[in-house]
Specification:
The protein has 502 residues and is of the alpha/beta class. It contains 14 helices and 24 strands. The protein has two domains: 15-398, Rossmann fold (3-Layer(aba) Sandwich); 405-499, GMP Synthetase, Chain A, domain 3 (2-Layer Sandwich). The chain is 29% helix and 24% strand.
């Protein structure tokens, strides 16, 4: 009998290993569909492509910890590249191509990538950059080197290694990259599986949320891809085309923000499109109102309300359609492997129903740090969201503890928008606020003090800031005022500024 202490053996959570296993068992099963070109990959083809990419990364000099940036519209390549990066313990960094160029360059400099893959070619100020490639370049180079790939070239086992850096807007407005490990992503996927009750191997997942966001990158999509299911990837969101895609490919599960869902349902109704295969509509990124739930229900859909954050791998709480009637509008209960609690402003735990507090979470899916920052000492992660429990301990969102505006699932820093607007010659002062909106959750609105006699239209103002702000950061409403409302201390009164748009 061996009485000695045995070393802990960590499970292999490699997405590449999982994909190879699924391909070995079901080589001809459909794996990836590019919705625009209708190009398809079987599991065997996906696994072969991932192997070629991993070997190309290796022969190019990439190694463990090197960052691989993917900056492009949604594509099947995001998933293939991530699995290939995991093969050698490299790190995926998805970045939105819609961000202003200056912002993208800053993010590149921050993560210091070894490789940038996307639709444009330029060299950022980083010393260890090996190449900037298009998807076509990458595919060609990987094929050219694949004939030298040794038979024993196998994926490295993965667990606590960094898998991805996914940027999120913080309450300060500064974009920070959550440093997610393979274990973080794997546990978030287990939360999704047990909470949404889907089987990854038989699921057909639509991908419409941006892959630079956790909802697109890991909102069931990565789990389904690497474990033998089918992904239908839409390069951009066109409600009519996505609705047709749901009907054509019998998409069964898909994450979308409420604004997308409103447009999808409307497009499907007007064009008489069958959405019945979409048995698991995951609605998150913003609050799902009763009107949207009722609208989707009339279409025969059963929406699942989801709350999550990048730092949690996407998995926080959810509310099943069966529980909606008793808790309308709630963000629900924690996923199986997540714990949630509320604390008041003084740090006291909240146990009584109806008392508001900051949501705090912990669990194996929660990232322990941001890129370039120290590891968090507290096992509980404090969000910027304020919520209350009801009598059943079901959580209801109240709002954000900061001024961050949530528009269509995109977080917007008012300070960042104000900075861009103040740079205009026609603007003397500005205050940016979020206004409630049925479709978008909130919209960006700006109260402007003119510097000249010219008061431009909303469209003209949006055109002037298009090079400094992303599309979702543009003000949808503006109002020219003689002066901004101020408090007795001389600071801008944000509640009064909001009332200017009433």
């Amino acid at each position: 009998m061996n009485t000695g202490c045995q070393a802990e053996v960590l499970p292999d959570l490699s997405p590449a290993h999982a994909l190879l296993s699924a391909a070995h068992q079901h080589p001809d099963r459909l794996s990836l569909i590019d919705a625009e070109s209708e190009r398809t990959f079987t599991l065997a083809q996906s696994a072969g492509c991932v192997r070629r990419l991993a070997w190309y990364f290796t022969t190019s000099g990439l190694s463990a910890g090197d960052r691989i940036v993917v900056c492009a519209p949604n594509s099947v390549w995001h998933f293939l590249i991530h699995a290939a990066a995991s093969w050698i313990h490299a790190v995926s960094v998805p970045i939105s191509p819609l961000l202003p160029e200056a912002v993208r360059r800053r993010l590149y400099d921050e993560v210091a990538p070894a490789l940038i893959i996307g639709e444009e070619h330029f060299t950022p100020h980083t010393s260890n950059l090996l190449a900037c490639l298009s998807f076509e370049d990458l595919n060609m180079l990987a094929r050219e080197t694949s004939n030298k790939c040794p038979a024993d070239f196998s994926p490295l086992p993965c667990h606590d290694e960094t898998a991805a850096l996914v940027f999120t807007s913080g309450t300060s407005g500064k974009m920070r990259a959550a440093q997610l490990t393979h274990a973080n992503l794997w546990w978030a996927s287990q939360c999704f599986r047990d909470g949404f009750e889907y089987c990854p191997g038989s699921a057909v997942c639509g991908v419409v949320a941006p892959l630079s966001h956790i909802g697109g990158f890991n909102g069931t999509s990565m789990d389904i891809f690497t474990h033998g299911g089918t992904l239908v990837v839409f390069a951009s969101f066109d409600p009519l085309e996505v609705a047709r895609g749901i009907e054509k490919w019998r998409i069964s599960i898909m994450f979308a923000v409420p604004a997308m869902c409103h447009m999808l349902v409307q497009a499907a109704r007007e064009a008489t499109i069958d959405l019945s295969s979409w048995t698991r509509p995951l609605v998150g990124g913003d609050a799902m109102g009763a009107s949207l739930f009722d609208e989707m229900s009339r279409m025969g859909l059963s929406p699942i309300h989801v709350w999550g954050m990048t730092e949690l791998g996407g998995a926080g709480t959810f509310l099943s359609p069966e529980r909606w009637p008793a808790h309308p509008g709630a963000i629900g209960f924690p996923f199986p492997y997540i714990q949630c609690r509320l604390r008041d402003a003084q740090g006291n735990l909240i146990t009584e129903a109806g008392q508001a507090g900051i949501i705090e979470v912990r669990g194996p899916g929660v990232a322990s740090r941001y890129w370039g920052e120290e590891e968090r000492e507290n096992e509980w992660f404090s969000s910027s969201d304020i919520a209350v429990f009801d009598e059943d301990h079901c959580m209801h969102m109240i709002g954000r503890s900061s001024r961050v505006i949530n528009t269509g699932g995109e977080l917007v820093s008012p300070a960042h928008v104000e900075e861009a607007l103040r740079a205009l010659d026609c603007v003397a002062d500005v205050c940016v606020v979020g206004l409630d909106d049925e479709r978008w959750g909130q919209i960006v609105a700006a109260a402007l003090v003119p510097a000249t006699h010219e008061e431009l239209s909303t469209e003209n103002v949006r055109n002037l800031v298009k090079d400094s702000l992303a599309p979702w950061q543009h003000p949808r409403r503006i109002r020219w005022v003689e002066a901004l409302p101020k408090t007795t201390t001389g600071k801008v009164d944000f509640s009064q500024a909001q009332s200017l748009f009433a």
